[in-house]
Amino acid sequence: MAVLLEDRINELQQRVEKMKEEKRYFYLKSIEGASGPRVTIDGREMLMFASYNYLGLITHPKIKKAAIDAIEKYGTGAAGVRLLAGTTKIHEKLEATIAEFKGAEDAVTYSSGYVTNLAAISTLCGRGDLVIIDKLDHASIIDGCLLSGATHRSYLHNNMESLERILSNSGRYINKLIIVDAVYSMDGDVSNLPEISRLAKKYNSKVMVDEAHSIGVLGKTGHGIEEHFGLKDAVDIHMGTLSKTIPSIGGYLAGDKDLINFLKHHSRPFIFSASLPPVAAATAIACFEVIESEPERIINLQKNVKQFKDGLNSMGYNTMNSTTSIVPILVGEEEDTLKLCQMVNDEGIFICPILFPAIPKDTNRLRAHVLATHTSEDIDKALDIFERAGGKLGLI
Ligand SMILES: Cc1ncc(COP(=O)(O)O)c(C=O)c1O
Predict the structure, then answer these.
(1) Which pLDDT does position 2 carry in this prediction?
(2) Which of 107, 117, 194, 270 gives 140 a disulfide partner, CB atoms 3.0 to 4.6 angstroms apart?
C-alpha cells in the first residue's frame, strides 16, 4: 500500500532518534584519519572489525606514491565518459592488469562495483532471457536483474538441487546466466563453484561471479575463487570491485575480448556516466601489484581468520558456514544483537549489526571483518571482549 513520502520520512526520523537515545545507532560513525586495524572515532581508539581493508593496503607506501604520481600526471579527474573523452592510458593499463590478474582476455571498468553489476546484467540480459541468482546474492545483482527486464529466479542459498530444478525447467529461454557471489557478503561462506560450473555446462548457461569479497582473500595467492578450487574456465564473466581489498573505487568485468568490446559499446554506464578518476585507476594498479609481490599478507589474513573464528566457536558462538574474512556472529533476536553490539562497542570494538530485512528473519547478527593487519593480540583482545559480553547476555 502506498504511503505518503512525508510519513515515510517522519517514521525513519523517529526510529533514528529513538536508536540514538538508546545509544544503539551504530551507523554513519566518522573515522578520524585512515582506516586501519585500529581507528579513532569520537576521540577514542577502537579495534576495527567492520572494514573491507582485508589486506591493509589503504596506507601502503607504494600505493600512496602511485596515487600521488597519478595526480601529478593526470590531475584530479578524467572529465569525460569512457566511450568519448574519458579514456586515458592509465585506464587501459588498469584493464590490462585486471585481465592478466584474472587470466581473462580483456576487462572493462566502471565507476563502482554496484554500477558494474547493473551494467553487466542490463547489457547482457533482456526480455526472453533468464538470470538465475543465489538467494543471498548482493543487492546490486538483484537491482541489475530488475533493470534488465529479463526473467530472474533465485535458488536456495548454495543449494545445488534447487539450482538444478530451475535449470531443468529453463528450456524456453534464449540466453541463461547464473550469477553468484564468490563469497557471500553477509554469511562469509564460499559459493559452490565446481558444481555450479558443471550444471551450467550441462544446461547451456553462462556463469558470472562477483568477487567483491574474494579478491586478495581466496586462493593461495589471492586470485580468487577459481584459484581457491583449482578450477580453470569455470567462469565466463568475472566481476569484481576496486573498493574493498583494492582500496580505491570502481568495479570491473573481465572475460572474452569480444564480450568486453560489446560491453564497451553497449553498456549505458560506460557511455552515459563519467569514467574513473585516473588516480583511482593508478591506485588500483598498484594494489594488484602489491597483492602479487606480498603474498605474506594473504597468509596472515588466513591465519587471523582461523584464530578469530576458532576462538569464537570454542566459546559457543555460531559463525555459520563462514570460512573467509567475513565472520558473522549469529545472535538471532534483534534486541540481543543490538545489546551485544552496544556492549562490545563500549569496550572498544568497532563492529556493525546486520538486521532483518537485510538478512532473513531471526538471523540478526554482528558481522566481523578480520584483517591481515590485526595482530594476534588484537584478536585475543577482541575475543576476550566477546566472551565477557556474550556471557553477560547469556548468549554463550
Ligand atoms: C558482493 C558485492 N558486490 C558488489 C558490491 C558493490 O561494490 P561497490 O561498493 O564497489 O559499489 C558490494 C559492496 O558491498 C558487494 O558486497
Answers:
(1) 87
(2) 117
